[in-house]
Amino acid sequence: MFEKILVANRGEIAVRIIRACKELNIRTVAVYSEADANSMHVQMADEAICIGGPPAVESYLRIDRIISAAEITDVDAIHPGYGFLAENAHFAEVCDSCNIRFIGPSPRAMQSLADKAVSRMLAKKVGVPTPPGSDGTVEKEQDALAIAKRIGYPVMIKAVAGGGGRGMRVAHNDISLVKGYHTARSEAEKAFGNSGVYIEKYIENPHHIEIQILGDHKGHIIHLGERDCSIQRRNQKVVEEAPSPLLEHKFRKLRDKIGKAAVKIAEASHYTSAGTVEFIVDNLGNYYFLEFNKRIQVEHPVTEEVTGIDLVRYQILLAMGETLRHSQGDIQIKGHAIECRINAEDPFDDFRPSPGRIEMYFQPGGRGVRVDTHAYAGYTIPPTYDSMIGKLITTGNDRREAMDRMNRALSEYMITGIKSNVSFQQAIMQDPNFRRGVYSTGFIEQLLGGARRELIDEKA
Questions:
Q1: Residue of 62, 101, 233, 295 marked catalytic
Q2: DSSP code of 180?
Q3: Is 10 an annotated catalytic residue?
Q4: Each residue of 38-78: pLDDT tens digit?
Q5: Which of 4, 58, 260, 414 is spaced 20 to 30 A from 420 at the CA atom?
Q6: d(CA 442, CA 205)
Q7: Which of 432, 402, 400 is nearest to 410 (CA)?
Q8: 37: helix, coil or strand?
């Protein structure tokens, strides 16, 4: 049993991890930057250590300072959360060398899934479909042009490291490919310290389906069903739900195929801990492997709500060497869950981030409503990190009830002093196509296009 865990992250995920530790009677250590001195996770932890200045490169990405904090406070393990060092194999190796347990996959598993290009090759090896594209990273623009000519436009240029929509560009011709290739490499270098990119066929307006998996040190791996993450803006997820309306109503037989494909990739990489295998599905029911996220996901709560399984708690138990307490046959999906990401941004100004001090903060409650957040009245959203305020999750016996509950909960959410996307999330919940479950990754662009047309008509 771990006695003390260091949480190497910030924001709502740090709060989420500390809560799981408290329920397991495990003491916690928070690390924080100077910008996060008054953050909720610092106040909730048993101990807290400042590890540097506001920029992540001076604090949350400093392995040496995090390990020093862990050694000073004599912790048993480190939980990396998501982002920052969560998928850094070197960090996991350093933890092992210091006799500190890394709560996540083993360095071996992380290296076998080192980046998106390597993961694609592993998926191909075990017979899981992947979109046509490059074999590994593309080092020269001439090679990029040759690959695009072979597979045909449009193509997607993707950073092999990181996520969140950064280092990604769509190209429809040679000119946009050359420009997008260099832009994506530059953006990836700045965001992830790795300029590597690969190229794959761009499937227009697909459905983004991901499978939650769990693996233990005995080689047992199960999946916990799917999440639909197709509601995205600039390749960043905005709304997630489980189960997927696409698989529930149109391609029900595909659910088992995708679940087994995810487990197959996880088994091939000898994966341990919680992870997520992402796929895209086209309108004909063809599915393709997208990437493997070697960490807890932002959207993990919707899976927790429909399965009744605490994923963060499970991560900790698996890191302690426990075996899976569930078999695949034990997993049952009950009801429906939806998550809306609540961000400090202005939907009426191209979603420009809105850092600043929260004057009033009132979060919704009631039956079937969950809020994962680190925000409170008087808290200042720093400009240094992502703009997430929190995650609003609602559940229902069916999708309609979950949507209606979400719509009600959003109407109760009150945040003043900064801009937020609460009203935009309400517009999504009330959209007829979303309510029918008829949407793809192009949904928000279509929604915004309709809103612009209405505005133009009003002015005319």
A1: 295
A2: H
A3: no
A4: 999 999 999 999 999 999 999 999 999 999 999 999 999 99
A5: 58
A6: 5
A7: 402
A8: coil
